[in-house]
Amino acid sequence: MRFFGRKEMEFERPLPPARVTLDVLGFVRNGIRKPQPNGWERVESRIEMKPGHLPKLEGLGQYSHVIVIFYLDLADDAPEKPDRLTLASGRTYGILATRSQLRPNHLGVAAVPLLGIEGRNLFVRGLDAIDGTPVLDIKPYLPEYDAFPGATTPS
Predict the structure, then answer these.
(1) Phi (first) and psi of residue 27, to 5 degrees
(2) CATH of the domain at 68
(3) Do the domain assignments include residue 7?
């Protein structure tokens, strides 16, 4: 494989790791105590960043929306790890074709409106994560990369 930049250089990708370790940046605070399948649209949450992460928030308040990546820690102890799931519609889908928390790696991802930032607290609406959920990353929502007009879903 060749990598082209300012100078042409040889690049050989090292073998990817089989396991990864992630650090928790903060926690969701919203008073929701147990998982629920829907009804998140109006839930307002505070993402309480751990001390030391304040400089990482610089400039984020200029965006209207953010993407929050979080760890669905309660799903880790779920007795069932399904390959497929039957939804309320009666249709069965592979687990990766759902928003279920019973995912192979229990990662949640949500694009949500950013209501404001105060100190090391971010305020968002519509984040489908319960109180105490660990937040792994936050990224600005960029319509040129993150929006797909005309995207389709099953009916």
Answers:
(1) -140, 145
(2) 2.40.30.70
(3) no
- Residue 111, Ramachandran bin (φ over 0: left; ψ between -120 and 50: alpha; else beta): beta
5, part of any domain: no
| Local confidence band at 6 (pLDDT 50, 70, 90 cut-offs) | low
**Per residue in 79-118, pLDDT tens?**
778 899 898 889 999 999 988 888 888 899 999 999 999 9
Summarize the chain as % helix, strand, coil (round to 5).
Answer: 10, 35, 55
The answer to whether residue 35 scores a pLDDT higher than 60 is yes
Residue 44's closest CA among 34, 63, 65, 29?
A: 29
Instruction: Write out the residue range of the structural domain in which residue 66 sits.
Output: 28-143
Distance CA 126, CA 132 (A): 16
Q: Tokens for 62? A: 């200029």
Cβ 69 vs Cβ 62: under 8 Å: no
Name, in order, each residue with C-beta under 8 angstroms of 53's C-beta and a sequence gap of 6 or more.
25, 26, 120
